Amino acid sequence: MGNRSSSVVQSTGRSRGWLTPLIAALLLGMGLLGSVAMGPADVPVTPLQAARVVAYHTLGRGPEQPPEVDAIVWQVRLPRALCGAMVGLLLGAAGVALQGLLMNPLADPYTVGVSAGAAVGAATAEVLGFAGMLMGLGAVVPAFAAALGAVALVYALARVNGRVAVHTFLLAGVVVGTLLWSLIPLLMVLGHRGDDLQRIYFYLVGNLQSTDWLRVALLAPFCVVCWTLLRLWAAELNLMALGEETAHHLGVDTERFKRKVLLVGSLATAAAVSVSGIIGFVGLVVPHIARRLTGPDHGRLLPVAATLGAGLVLASDTLVRVWLNDLPVGIVTSIVGAPIFCLLLRARRGVAW
């Protein structure tokens, strides 16, 4: 009887292991198709037409659609939807990794100073007037470089005697982030031209209005590499959740592992922020929701969090693009994410992390 019960439990666990990510992936696919088909354009586009445009360009099959439909789907909506999904994927996966590594439910990709560094880099590019260079990536490149520089500074401040204490790392991230954020008003004053101020503002609140296939190509390698590495390190993340000393006794080189996860998480966040600006609460809220669905095992948690993050940003961007006059998407994710996070915190009262 005991063996039968054990086998039933294991079978149920295996079912949850693949069923939840599968459902999330199917919903994300439907969301992508719906986002591409929906829009405020005067030319109506049906989901079937959107699917045919994608099939025509990717597989070379299917009837060619009217030029206006083809342009709307392939040149405008699809790259924007893909960018939104990849930004959410990167933020969701990075949030899970950082919360698991730092053992702190309030940790998120922006806690380590990445967002502040990227904002300073992008604002500097706007003020100096080279944001439009490099085929439109003139602000992306300095934002990415400044984000990594901010993380390197945080790491240097938190490293003592060859070790990085996770709590010290969080405090250093808050300090460096606060210092960098204080530079933003100065740059906005220096960027006195109206267009500069508007672009800096849109970057600070997060938006996907300027996305194109070039930015899709920029984000795609980071999505593949960062998510794959974090997924491969799921077992070590599970051990780190037991405590550094326990993980060390079980064979994990904790200091080396912390460096690897912090680097990959920072790369993922820097890539997302440099393209879309600061889209808040995704990396903070999504890991908590995913943990409720899958439990603490990072092997199941990472794919679900990545898919939920992609879906959240995609749904928010579709909402603002179709019904809210193309507001910055970061406004919606913050308005939705903050109450959800408060509810999750109340539900966790008295529960240890």
User: Average pLDDT value?
Assistant: 84
- Major β-sheet strand ordering: 1-2
Protein structure class: mainly alpha
Query: How would a textbook summarize the main sheet?
Result: 2 strands, antiparallel
Within the CATH hierarchy, at the fold level, what is the topology?
ABC transporter involved in vitamin B12 uptake, BtuC
Q: From the coordinates shown, what is the CATH architecture?
A: Orthogonal Bundle
The DSSP helix count reads 16
N-to-C CA distance: 34 Å
CATH superfamily: ABC transporter involved in vitamin B12 uptake, BtuC
Q: Sketch the topology as an H/E string, one letter per element.
A: HHHHHHEEHHHHHHHHHH
Gyration radius, rounded:
21 Å
Tally of strands: 2
Counted up, domains total 1
Beta-strand residue fraction: under 5%
Shape: globular
* Helix proportion: over 70%
The unreliable regions are 1-16
Q: In CATH, what is the class? A: Mainly Alpha
Structural account:
It is built from 16 helices and 2 strands. The chain is mainly alpha-helical. It has a single domain (90-347), classed as ABC transporter involved in vitamin B12 uptake, BtuC, CATH 1.10.3470.10. Helix 1 (2-37) packs across helix 3 (67-102). The radius of gyration is 21 Å and the shape is globular. The two termini are 34 Å apart.
